[in-house]
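Q: I have three molecules that I believe assemble together. Could you output structure tokens for the complex as a whole instead of separate predictions?
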Amino acid sequence: MTKTPILQVKDLHTHFQTGGGLFAEKTWLKAVNGISFDIHEGEVLSLVGESGCGKSTVGRTLTHLEPSTSGKALFNGTDILPMTGAEFRPLRRDIQMIFQDPFASLNPRLTIEQTLAEPLFIHGLAASKTDARAQIAETMELVGMDPKVMARYPHEFSGGQRQRIGIARVMILKPKLVIADEAVSALDVSIQAQVLNLIKKLQRDSGVSMLFISHDLGVVRHISDRVAVMFQGQIVETGDKQQIFEAPAHEYTKKLLSSIPRITERVA
Amino acid sequence: MALLDVTDLEIAVAAGGKLLPVVRGVSFAIEENETLGIVGESGCGKSLTSLAIMGLLEGSQVRITGGSIQFDGRELTTLSAEDRRAIMGDQMAMIFQEPMTSLNPVYRIGDQIVETLRQHRDMTKGQARDRAIELLDLVRIPEPTRRVDSFPHQMSGGQRQRVMIAMALACDPKLLIADEPTTALDVTVQKEVLDLMADLQTRTGTAIVLISHDLGVIAETCDKVAVMYRGKIAEAATTRELFSNMSHPYTRGLLNSIPVVDHDVEWLEAIPGRVPTIDEVLPGCAFHPRCPLAEDRCNAEDPAPRDVANGHAVRCHFAGGAA
Amino acid sequence: MKYLRTFLAMFKGRKLATIGLIWFCIVAVAAIAAPLLAPFDPLEIDPVARLSEPGTPYLFGTDHFGRDSFSRAIYGARMAVIIGLGSVIVALVTGGLIGMISAYFTRLGHVLMRGVDVLMAFPALLLALVLMTLLERSVTNTIIVIGIVYATTTARILFGMTLKLKGEVFVDAAICSGAGHGSILFRHILPNLISPLLVQASFIFAFAQLQAAALDFLGLGLPPEVPSWGNMLSEERIYVTRAPWLLIFPGALIILSVFSMNLVGDAMRDSIDPRFKDDIAGV
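A: Yes, here they are, computed for all three components at once.
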């Protein structure tokens, strides 16, 4: 990990206007208030924190779903934040996002095949429909789904299956950086374990870098190499997984870790 | 006689002219001062069971099709709506998952507590208001004399859930049903709310039924646990017994599915397959399509609950050694 | 076939709405097959039989020129359907586009929607009257004017619904896949608006009948020689005491048609996506 990081975020701010306007003074919510981190190639960095800490906004800013207020985000050395929509569009192939809610993230009016074909055609990665179908079938097998079901609509699938489809939509582009925003939070425990294993396996096999955003410390420990703890728009502590979980330095990290209900305490 | 005694409860959903069973033969009992945890994944029937106890299924597509619910010696399933109203909010109360939607946004929180109090108790407005402040103090809302006049939107999620608890406790209920009371809350707030509930129980002796999908929450707060799968109790025991002697393959699978914070696991032992939907008809043991132990007989024969230890019942052909 | 079945399923257990749908089908058949169904030419004058009572051969009687009222009513159905469909298309296309684009491109939307607000400040009939006085009486102009009147409400409704859909996660997901504005609007958002648009269409169809009849009655709608229900009312209104059937038949036809389409619209509204139920409150 001596190479330059694939993503370098420097002093990122994302503020939202919450009030004011023509006559009243403008008020701002500083959702992300000056954070910096690096992600190296093939590394999984987790951004962990409680609701409202700004972790999701970080992911949405890096994918241009929210405009940034200031700061830099160097992807392979180029700052992606000042880019226009048109300039950023080709880079979307490399920077992909997995969303939380598997029920809301698929267009109910498109079949699985249509959903998965769209990114291929947008980025010119499929020569023909047959070619696209072959790639879709391959990716569906990769995420543990039977390609035969590609003609179906999202409502015919369970939450876990839909999340696999969401992951397939990301992996079909062979991205360089995946941002996973609470990717397993909406799933039942037994399904969450399957999907978590799948994400870990795909990450290992493809070597893709990953920003894993989550509130669940157990999930974070399972998937990450390094962890950044966020609190009120800022990163309070960054470190290797072992260090964060076994020797947390910041008070807030300690509080988070001690708040988790544990099964062992009562039983042992 | 237990405070709450649920026997062979059957609940079904009416869908497309058919009745689909969603809770099938659930039995449990809870004493005063005791906390029972019901754990399971979505669609296992845990929430419907709690709604049935509270009598909140009426008028919906869901109905009780069999069994009995005895509360304090009274049969609840045949109780008239009027008698039920007298009990609800008074002798038994409920806390829901979403504290934002379960408080009425247009009324001050104090007024909402006062209303509950005056419905069941002969109190003047002043007395009820004093009691409301007392309750807010009890659930550790800071500056209760001022916050009693707040609107729900002026409070944080954790505070709203505490207001809900205050409202539920207003009439010193004998039974409190909490359906995923901390699922919408952050872990640090969750800990505060769970601690508060445990603390209040030691003071008031209220029996609590805690519904959760989180084995950790159950392990930390409950005396007894019932693990539900597909409408049936797969395994039930005291918390200590259950976690030291897990006997149902589903319970074990559930535990192994949870990524833990205290040590590293390379791959989680996930339960294969998916949670069955309510319209699927599964012969034999409902868990057999996902079960690592499954044999031919699991497909054919639904296992009856068998005791593997004192008060530890398991619905599995392989429980307690020999099949 | 699948769509037809889902459409018909909406009317299950709704007697009034089913009657409305049947009535609409009758009007539609009359409109399509008017030349075959009408016993006489709607413009043919029989001077001998002026103002004759309903009977044979003039089922609905004749008007003061001696034209067959029944034939005119059938051709009137054709006009009703043309006006209805035309207004629906104008309203949905212009209003729909303005609403969707305004919600999607917020800055442009501020300007466009203020314009819509100004138009909406006028009562529908007054707006139609003002616009009609500026234009020549013709079928096309009547359609355009009624279309514009209901384009404003359509724009409002679509603005709200597009705004909701724009916040959906699947739209974010499409953006992250690299989809452009056109693809987001027409491939991801529009298909999710089809059912509310159909409901909206049925209400516009109903209200267009009323508007057209009112314009005709005031002498500002269709040219007088065109056989429409509104014109029939307008021309024969002075004979209300001598030949009341000349007013009763077209009047009843207008009321029945408006009422039917409203019932159809209600039935459709009740079975669409609950997210949008509040948005469509009628036109």
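A: One point stands out. Chain A has a mean pLDDT of 92.
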